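Progress note, sequence design subtask.
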């Protein structure tokens, strides 16, 4: 193809615009990489009460067990709201359901309620609470009962001794009922100052999971932080619990201010689908209120954890820290022995191995780091890393990056529509840039950034394949050896990947702010991003090549070819092929994202585990198993002068790999450098499979070629 034809197809001005955009994207990406590299500390947490209960059940010293977990790498213990049931069990206060007291004789429950047993006013639908052995706990209980239930439900039943009556569900459940509100004895009752102090004395940091006050009252928030301040503890993280954040619905900004004053981070629990995080009402508003001073938290669901063997659970933690920017490992203990190992030894070994693997991937074990704009690294008064504020990319640089997306669209439109050349392409770019500038400088520009990311994700894989198709137009004869085809496929695939990575870099910088890194905002349209490159490549191929011509390029009428395809007489063979293609499309689209519902075969899970062990970043199956081998076969088809319909099928397979490569960069929780390395690993593994495919097909070619010719003639 002559230089003039290259210039006609690839407008030099638009190519220059893409180069400028790529440079701006690299500038933003190096800032993002720096932010990600500085965030290199992982916090390891356990539930404080779970440790105490394990020690009690096993007849083991809680002091010794806590010390052993600390030596195993646990930095932080999670403290939940206390409950009347727990305080009563620890004899810090006394609490009994009214229906039990009505049936009891004197001396029951340490004699704390003897004075009211004969009272006819005892209500079976109430809980009665009085002092125990801890005066501080009694004062906290009184405060929280009135804050949570009000004077209509809480009243003084007796003055000497002081006994409170709390109207409500007095049952004591053995198993939690997730369909109904928690009964009074097991309902949340605020943080215990004594418990907070105990954790501090054992040498641990503290993460808290208190529940919201319903009905909400600002006094409840004040009480929460007053207890934290009174205990004098280092709280690293607030992880929401229940259904909503504290402060919802009326006073989230007040809660956010309290967290900011103490530099307490907001913990975002990753959702079980690994997409965004568990939903709590008011969570996004609270995240904005703390200026995105937050960490991503991983926890295995209790029901799932009960079914897992330790080695299966073990592999998740360090991998999630590295691949999904998890910075708080919220580990759940195993409650049953496994493989003849006692649960205490099992869990201690579990924590030691998690710590070893996390350190092995280059992370430090301490208070979790945070994503932030460059500048905040010193520790604050409570031990948390200083927070310099939320990072937001420079708007002028983003505008330059947008130039790459609009120029790519103009290039593609020029290839599809002969009338859309020159001035019309420039007008398209100018209009797009004006829209982008208005959106970016008049607000956050989230919608336009989502659109620009979509354009980059779907267009650059197509443009990279277009360049390869243009190179193939110089092929005149079938003279290249199999080794020559393999060598050509290697450098042409490398070129296609390099061109696709331009779009990937644009994507990674367009969505490179803190909310995307935390997955508070996510890339929309994942499934469409997989489909569109295939459809756009199909249109491009039909525009430039006639699939009804055996070989070579011919000025093709896109509309005429589509009409001819629609008018084709269908045979049983066509339906079989169509059925296979529909099944492949179902798997292809259904397996994308996290909610497709298409199950992963056991053999593929084993393959993933193997690749995670032997490679730095496990490449995506769509690249090394489909896209890159199809690319090698497409090169073979081009140099063996195969029919155009055959090349089309292979080219569509090849663009799947390029699209998957770019789409990897839409997962902003994955560190940028890992995404680049994943692309390189995919190239290496895909090339191996591609070489094998070329050799096998070359051996079978003498038998296949006559059939291809007959099929083309019949068509």
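Output:
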């Amino acid at each position: 193809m002559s230089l003039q034809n290259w210039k006609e197809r690839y407008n030099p001005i638009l190519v220059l615009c893409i180069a400028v955009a790529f440079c701006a994207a690299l500038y933003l990406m190096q800032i993002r990489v720096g932010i990600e590299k500085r965030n290199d500390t992982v916090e390891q947490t356990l539930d404080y009460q779970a440790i105490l209960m394990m020690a009690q059940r096993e007849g083991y010293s809680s002091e010794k067990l806590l010390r052993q977990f600390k030596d195993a790498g646990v930095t932080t213990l999670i403290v939940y709201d206390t409950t009347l049931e727990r305080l009563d069990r620890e004899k810090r206060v006394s609490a009994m359901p009214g229906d039990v007291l009505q049936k009891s004789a004197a001396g029951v429950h340490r004699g704390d309620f003897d004075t009211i047993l004969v009272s006819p006013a005892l209500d079976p639908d109430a809980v009665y609470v009085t002092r125990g052995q801890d005066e501080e706990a009694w004062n906290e209980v009184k405060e929280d009962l009135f804050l949570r239930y009000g004077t209509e439900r809480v009243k003084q039943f007796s003055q000497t001794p002081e006994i409170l009556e709390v109207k409500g569900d007095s049952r004591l459940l053995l198993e939690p009922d997730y369909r109904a509100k928690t009964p009074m004895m097991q309902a949340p009752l605020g943080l215990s100052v004594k418990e907070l102090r105990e954790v501090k004395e054992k040498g641990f940091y503290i993460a808290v999971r208190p529940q919201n006050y319903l009905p909400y009252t600002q006094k409840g928030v004040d009480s929460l932080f007053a207890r934290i301040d009174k205990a004098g503890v280092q709280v690293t993280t607030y992880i929401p619990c229940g259904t909503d954040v504290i402060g919802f619905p009326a006073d989230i900004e007040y809660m956010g201010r309290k967290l900011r004053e103490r530099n307490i981070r907001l913990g975002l629990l990753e959702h079980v689908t690994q997409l965004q995080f568990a939903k709590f009402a008011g969570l996004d508003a609270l995240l904005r209120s703390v200026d995105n001073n937050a960490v991503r938290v991983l926890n295995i669901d209790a029901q799932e954890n009960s079914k897992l063997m330790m080695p299966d659970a073990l592999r998740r933690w360090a991998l999630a820290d590295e691949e999904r920017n998890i910075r708080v490992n919220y580990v759940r203990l195993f409650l049953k022995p496994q493989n003849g190992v006692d649960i205490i030894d099992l869990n201690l070994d579990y924590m030691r191995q998690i710590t070893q693997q996390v350190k092995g991937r280059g992370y430090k074990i301490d208070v979790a780091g945070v994503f932030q704009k460059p500048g905040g690294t010193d520790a604050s008064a409570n031990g948390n890393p200083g927070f310099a504020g939320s990072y937001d990319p420079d708007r002028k640089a983003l505008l330059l990056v947008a130039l790459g997306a609009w120029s790519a669209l103009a290039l593609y439109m020029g290839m599809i529509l002969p009338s859309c050349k020159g001035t019309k392409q420039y007008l398209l770019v100018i209009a797009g840039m004006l829209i982008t500038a208005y959106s970016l400088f008049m607000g956050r520009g989230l919608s336009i950034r989502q659109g620009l990311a979509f354009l980059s994700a779907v267009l650059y894989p197509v443009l990279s394949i277009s360049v390869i198709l243009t190179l193939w137009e110089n092929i005149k004869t079938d003279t290249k050896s199999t080794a020559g085809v393999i060598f050509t496929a290697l450098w042409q695939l490398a070129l296609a990947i390099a061109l696709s990575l331009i779009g990937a870099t644009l994507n990674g910088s367009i969505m490179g702010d803190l909310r995307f890194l935390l997955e508070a905002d996510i890339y929309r349209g994942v499934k469409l991003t997989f489909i569109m490159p295939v459809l756009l490549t199909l249109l491009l191929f039909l525009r430039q090549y006639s699939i009804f011509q055996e070989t070579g390029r011919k000025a093709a009428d896109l509309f005429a070819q589509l009409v001819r395809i629609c008018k084709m007489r269908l045979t049983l063979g066509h339906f079989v092929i169509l059925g296979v293609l529909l099944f492949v499309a179902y798997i292809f689209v259904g397996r994308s994202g996290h909610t497709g519902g298409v199950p992963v075969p056991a053999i593929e899970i084993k393959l993933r585990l193997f690749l995670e062990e032997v490679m730095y970043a496990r490449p995506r199956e769509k690249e090394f198993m489909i896209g890159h081998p199809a690319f090698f076969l497409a090169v073979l088809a081009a140099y063996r002068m195969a029919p155009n319909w055959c090349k089309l099928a292979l080219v569509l397979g090849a663009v799947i790999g390029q699209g998957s490569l770019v789409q990897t960069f839409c997962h902003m929780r994955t560190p940028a450098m890992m995404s680049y390395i994943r692309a390189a690993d995919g190239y290496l593994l895909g090339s191996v499979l591609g070489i094998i495919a070329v050799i096998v097909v070359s051996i079978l070619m003498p038998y296949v070629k006559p059939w291809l010719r007959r099929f083309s003639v019949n068509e």
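The two ends are 29 Å apart (CA to CA). Work on this subtask will continue into the next period as scheduled.
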